[in-house]
Amino acid sequence: MNMIKEITLAWTLASMMVFSSIAIADDAPATNTYEVSIKSLRLPVSPNGTVSLRECDDCDYHEIRVTPNTQYMINGKHLELTEFRKAILDLKLRRDITVNVTRDEATNTIVSVYVYV
User: Fold this and answer.
1) Among 8, 24, 67, 81, which has the minimal tally of Cβ within 10 Å of its Cβ?
2) Do the domain assignments include residue 100?
3) How many domains does the chain have?
4) Residue 78 within any structural domain of the chain
């Protein structure tokens, strides 16, 4: 079952990258995607807040700014920040969930926060 989830997630992320690269062409900004445990993620309270994340249990938290353009998604469904926060609170009871957080390197802001369950 986990293998199916991983394949589906990989296919979804690959599709998103292909379609977004076609839309943006060669002017696509450089991004960095963090894969973190749901327990290592602190979401912003407002659309202009910060995401705090750590890449391992012994790592320090990093704060990265979000913008009103930051996309929040669960299983490919786009949610507003308030809806996403509520959904994540329910998911935090499960330790095995990975969250993908994509950062735009040029602006040092979060582009998207994506969860697949």
Assistant:
1) 24
2) yes
3) 1
4) yes
pTM of the complete model: 0.73
- Rounded CA-CA distance 64/93 in Å is 24
List, as own/partner pairs, every contact residues 11-19 make where C-beta atoms lie below 8 angstroms and the sequence separation is at least 24, other chains included: 12/76, 12/116, 13/100, 13/114
Per-residue pLDDT tens digits for 34-91: 999 998 999 999 999 999 999 988 999 999 999 999 999 999 999 999 999 999 888 8
**Does any domain span residue 15?**
no
- Between CA 86 and CA 96, with CA 91 as vertex, the angle to 5 degrees is 155
Residue 110 structural domain: 29-115
Do residues 36 and 92 touch, judged by C-beta distance below 8 A?
no
8 HSE (CA, 13 A, CB side): 10
22 lies in some domain: no
Give the phi and the psi of residue 65 in degrees, each rounded to 5. Answer: -70, 145
